[in-house]
Structure formats: structure tokens, C-alpha cells
Amino acid sequence: MTGRSGENRSEHEEFATAGLFPGDHTVTAAPASPPARALRQISALLGVGNVLAAVPVDRRTLAAARLLLEHGMRAAAPVLGGTGIDPVDDGPVPGEWVRGPRATRDDAAVLYVHGGGFVAGSPRSYRGVASRLSTATRLPVFTPAYRLAPEYPHPAAPQDVAAAYRWLLTQGYDPDRIVLAGDSAGGYLAADFAITHAAQGNSRPACLLLFSPMTDLSLDTAARSVHRDTVLGPAVARAAVAQFTARPQRLRPVAGTALPPTLIHVGGDEFFTADAVALATALRAAGAHCSLHTWPGQLHVFHALPAVVPESRSAYRAAARFVAAHLDPAGETAAATAAPGRSARSVG
User: Fold this and answer.
1) Residues with catalytic roles
2) Cβ neighbours, 10 Å, residue 163
3) pLDDT tens, residue by residue, 308-325
4) 93-143: pLDDT as tens digits
5) Domains in the chain: ranges and CATH
6) Are strands 141-144 and 207-211 parallel, antiparallel or unpaired?
7) End-to-end alpha-carbon separation of the chain, Å?
8) Distance (Å, rounded) from C-alpha 185 to C-alpha 324?
């Protein structure tokens, strides 16, 4: 494990040194960049987390939250110039293919399950994230428009993720050529599918990428930890989960099943840091290979903030190296050295 020494170590580093995650754990040595620190300070000064926690969840506020996420994501993660967008309307789950400007490969694909607390987000709002992941990995990314709560509560979203995966199989991609990925609530859905899929005795996908995943919908794991998240806290998370399911569950990997090798990225100061540690520990206990990478000072899903947080670019490169290692174990390194291109124009 690599890490920083001194009194400013994050809680996640304490988890690691305490031996709670004895496996492959990297803590980024460099402190958070000035833009990342400024973002955290500004959100704290504005009381963003307190404002979100105080807003009641109803039809109007939900519509406003969805609109805010759509516009906010486009500003924080503009689509890379030269990105191709191909809508899919004839599959079991609508969605879109996103091909970044350097996505030159067609022998494998990424299935990306977007975040949004189970109640918001869309392929359109996540085009910037998908275009960067596509460029970094040089792979096409399919983002399904899974059904959102509360209009469609559990199990609608998990069913849609499973249907999207099966659809990719019909498009000619073998399981070991599919990269499963997701962030936040989408990370929960992606990991839940991988665990369920493995427990049913199916062949595993190539690998699993999780960015700031929710892993315990009861929120017991997160609530017991000390966090410094200035945006997302227990009240907001509980409100979102309540729209999704009345029976919140924790992800439970099953030992002896074909679980995919997994990479988890998490911010050192976010509400779900402990969730990431818990899932990584459970995966390793079940026999899976899991790499855990903590980014000190980063907030929830900093990958979705490339226009603000420089560390997001490093995160995409790290994800690409992991993907390349599991898609091309013989030594294919082109994807690992690719970096996302310059943000230019939004597509669509």
C-alpha cells in the first residue's frame, strides 16, 4: 500500500493501516489539488449538504433534482469533441452507444450503469463520463436508460441492467469481453448484477469498475463511519433509497462463485468511503480479486467532475490500465496509456 504520512491522513488510510482491508489498496500519495480543495470548501460554505437534506422528496423536488443533475453533469463533464453518440431504441432496454474520439476497438465493450440515487440520471446526462471512459479504454460504452424510482421501484432497475447485459451478448460480445461499470447507485446496480450473475453459475464479465459505489442500502456501514462529505450525507442517501426499495439490502458476494476482478475508486472524504472498504473486504473474502484505490480529499464520484477536478483524469487512466490488464493479459497496453482528450463541444 502507498500512502501519505502525517496527521492529515484520511479515515480510509486508517482503515487500511488497521488491517481492515489487507489486500491491494492504493492511496494516492499527492494531496488533493487546489481545485478539488476549493470545491470542497465552497460546498461546505454554501451548506450544500444541509440544503439537500432539508428538501422534502415529492414530485416537484424530484423533477427539479433530475433537471439539476442533467444540466450539472453537462457543465461538470462536457462531452469530448469528436465523440460519437448512437441511440439504441430497438433493444430490451433503451440506451445509447458512446464512442470517444480515441475509441478504436470493437472487440470488447463497456456496460456503464449511471448513478443518480436510483431516482435521477440518464444516458444523456452521463455522456461526458461515458466519452471519457470510452476514450481512456478505447472501447465503446453502452449506457442503458434503466427505469428510475419512484415511478419504477425495485426490482425494475436490476431487471433492466440484467436485460442490457444479455442484449450485449446478443450483439456478439462474449462475457469475457464485457466490462461492467457504474458509479454511486449505478455502482450498486452493477455490483449487484455481478454478484447475482455469479451466484447463478454464469460466466463472469471481464472485470468490474466501481466509482464511489453505494454498497449497503441500509446505510448502516456509512452511518457508523466518520466522514467529511460536504455534499452527500445520510439524510439525502436515505431519502433516495426509500424511493427505490422498502427492503434495503447490503451487497453480499458469494464465496466460490465466478466473481469478476474488481477495481473500486472512492474519495477519501466521501460518505461512502466505508462502503467501498466493506465491499472490497467482502469480495476478497469471497475469493475475488479486488483492488481498492482511495483519492484523499475527493468528494463523491469525482470522476464526474473533470471540468473542475484534475484528479478525475488520473482516475480514468487508472481504470483504463485495469481494464487493459484483464481484457488483454498478454500485454496489450494501448488502452492503458490513452488519456482523455480535450473538452470541446457537447454532442446532442
Assistant:
1) 184, 270, 300
2) 15
3) 888 999 999 999 999 999
4) 999 999 999 999 999 999 999 999 999 999 999 999 999 999 999 999 999
5) 12-330 (3.40.50.1820)
6) unpaired
7) 42
8) 25
